[in-house]
Amino acid sequence: MKKLEVRCPSCSNRGYIEVSEKEVEKAARGVFAVNILEGVACEHSFVAYIDKNLAVRDTFMADFQLELPDDVPEQVIAPDVSEQLELIDVSLIKLNLTASLLTHIIRAILFKKKIFLVFNQAFMGDNINKFIEYITLNSFKANILVISGEQYNIYNIEDSVILDGKKVIKDDDDILSAKTLNVERSLVRKFLAEYEPKPSLIYLQNGLQKAYDLSRTIVEIVKNLKKKEKVYSKNVLEDIARIHGVKIQLPYLDFLYNIVENYFEVKVPKSSNISNFLSTL
User: Which of 5, 41, 67, 74 has the greatest count of CB atoms below 10 A from its CB?
Assistant: First the structure.
């Protein structure tokens, strides 16, 4: 057993855990996730990701109470898509993109931001681009550029997000606030928890495609509203269940509203918070 120090990503308090070297070795193709319970470092629960060198790569707040829509059945992968999957080195992605960084990338994509990803390992650029291209297949368009060092100084960085590992260098609109990333964190946590490369990629691609499709439905609902008519969450939840056959929670619906307003640039004329809440009871 190996004793490792972990730091809470919320309050920065430190604690210690013991991990089995054999268990970490089994996850050598990716990262080994350890659920840290309340009381180990502080009052919070979080996830620590351990790499094959028994180093703590990242710590990540756990959103275990948030239920995502049911997974779509695993689809038959077309030959060209299957070939695209083979080109992605998932173990490299999981070892080099921390949970926090991947969460921030997904959030920026959903908010239609230009992303500059500072990455000094030149060999990762092509693999990251292939990874992003696949997970956004048939859904969101990603505007991401992998650069090195201070290279972003030669680009127009207006209205962009700049990321460097766990650090957020530029986020003028404060879209990467930790309190607003619950759904993105849940998607990333499940992607990292899946040991097999292809299923983990397919899960993440399906999760983003589902968010895209459900958001498109809300866009149509808003466009069909009469003048001055408001959107009630209960009605939207019912429409989504009827059209897509999935039940979603209010936090996930708020996540979709954000996509509608920031990616599709369609203002959602929501009723008051109280009316929205009462409509779901």
Answer: 41
